[in-house]
Every structure is written in structure tokens, then in C-alpha cells.
Specification:
The structure is a single chain. By secondary structure, the chain is mainly α. The chain folds into two domains: about 80 residues; about 100 residues, no CATH class. It is built from seven helices and no strands. α1 packs across α3, α2 packs across α3 and α5 crosses α6.
């Protein structure tokens, strides 16, 4: 009887077993595809390797190739061409990566949701930044963020490069926060202020939410541990009392 051929693809010899176990990075795959197209687009505006190598040869110190040993001149020409090829590829790759980064940043800004016109008021800004929060919670988060940000900015008093340790800076006062909010209410937010402030506020709100969840989990864990300890103590006390009275102790199921 003829055994049918297996339809399972054969794994080439020497292939590591863990080759297929690596997690698939979809974002990295999309970035590589985008970079491939961007490199092709940028390469059209970059001089060819031959032209770059010709310029490099003209700039190379030493006598002209005609007065050199032909083999030495040929080897130097190949080395110049290879170096120029590597530099050109690195140049194109760098430009493509910077362009991809700009495109991703623009996509992030577009995903934030743009107002129809600028400047926008503080209340409009808070509503766009934290649409799922209550009005009073939005303003509280903004106040808390400003309190931290004002103190953080005081670390850099000038352009001389000196930084004051955060611990030495006094906490931000309520008056400082109130003055900052009054300026926001008066001037509103222009396009650049909107995108930066929105990102910072959302990141701050997310960090506060994570911290609250962490504290809530720790509190629940402590309460559960205390309850278990209390139940154990009560059970042991009950068993001790039953032994004193000569009663049989019920076994745990």
C-alpha cells in the first residue's frame, strides 16, 4: 500500500526550533515596509555612487592616479567606491527614518482630534483632552499637572546648563497654579500649545490612573491577607477551646 505524501511543509535542516516562537512585531513590520518605500523615494534625489566616488577621488590627498601604480590605483578606486556606497546607503536610511518619524508624529497629532479653529478655550481643551472624565475631574487633573510641571520647570532657571535638584525646590503654591489657569482662560491654547499640552495631560492622567489601580490592588491584597489571618486565628482559637472541653475537632475538608 502506497503511503500518501505528507502535506506538512518540511523544516530545513539546521533551522532553530525556537525560530517560530518569537512574537510577531506588526509595528516593526509596518515600519520596515514604510522605510522601503521612503528609501526608494529619497534615493531618486541622492547623487549616484559613481558621482560621489569621483568627488571623493578629487578630494583625496596624494598624486593623480596616472602617476601611481595601476594596481594600487585600482584598489584605491574600489575602496573609495565601496566607502561611498556605504555612506550613501547610510545617508538614505537616515533620511528615510527621520521622515518616517515625522509622518508617525503627524499621524499621532491627527489622531488626537483637532479643533475647527484656534485658539480654543481652557474648557474646550480639557473636554478634548479628557472626554471620558467629568468636568470637575478634568480641572482637578489639570491643576495637579500644573502643580507638578511648574515645580519641575523651576529646575532650569536659565540657559547656562545648571540644574537645581528637584528636592530643593519648594512645592508649587495654590496662587501660582491659579495664576497659570487665569492666563490659560485669558489666552486660550494655540495649535502648538494644544498638541503638546494635550499629550502631556493625557500621559499624566494615565499615570495617575495606573498609580491608583496599583494602590487599590495593594490595599485589596492587604485586606485579603488580614482576613485570612483573622480567620485562621479564630479557627485555631475555636479548636483550642474544643480541645479544652474534650470535644472532637472537625477535620478540614
Amino acid at each position: 500500500m502506497k503511503i500518501p505524501k505528507s502535506t506538512t511543509p518540511e523544516v530545513p535542516a539546521g533551522t532553530p526550533k525556537e525560530a517560530d516562537s518569537k512574537p510577531y512585531d506588526s509595528e516593526a513590520w509596518r515600519d520596515e515596509n514604510a522605510l522601503f518605500g521612503l528609501r526608494e523615494e529619497i534615493e531618486k534625489n541622492i547623487p549616484p555612487v559613481s558621482e560621489i566616488a569621483h568627488l571623493a577621488a578629487l578630494l583625496t590627498h596624494g598624486g593623480p592616479a596616472a602617476f601611481q601604480n595601476p594596481e594600487v590605483a585600482a584598489r584605491q578606486a574600489v575602496e573609495v567606491w565601496a566607502a561611498c556606497s556605504r555612506q550613501r546607503a547610510a545617508w538614505i536610511d537616515g533620511l528615510a527614518r527621520r521622515k518616517l518619524m515625522r509622518e508617525k508624529e503627524e499621524a499621532k497629532l491627527n489622531a488626537l482630534g483637532q479643533p475647527k479653529k484656534f485658539p480654543i478655550s481652557l474648557d474646550e481643551f480639557l473636554q478634548l483632552a479628557l472626554p471620558d472624565n467629568r468636568t470637575e475631574d478634568r480641572l482637578k487633573l489639570w491643576r495637579d499637572y500644573l502643580r507638578e510641571n511648574i515645580r519641575f520647570c523651576k529646575q532650569y532657571p536659565g540657559t547656562g546648563g545648571s540644574v537645581i535638584p528637584y528636592e530643593r525646590i519648594p512645592p508649587t503654591t495654590d496662587d501660582e497654579v491659579a495664576d497659570c489657569i487665569a492666563r490659560h482662560r485669558k489666552r486660550g491654547f494655540d495649535e502648538s500649545q494644544y498638541s503638546n499640552s494635550l499629550t502631556f495631560l493625557r500621559n499624566y492622567a494615565a499615570a495617575i490612573k495606573r498609580e491608583k489601580l496599583k494602590i487599590r490592588g495593594q490595599t485589596a491584597g492587604k485586606a485579603s491577607a488580614n482576613k485570612k489571618a483573622k480567620d485562621k486565628a479564630e479557627r485555631e482559637a475555636k479548636e483550642a477551646a474544643e480541645r479544652e472541653a474534650g470535644k472532637p475537632i472537625a477535620k478540614k475538608k
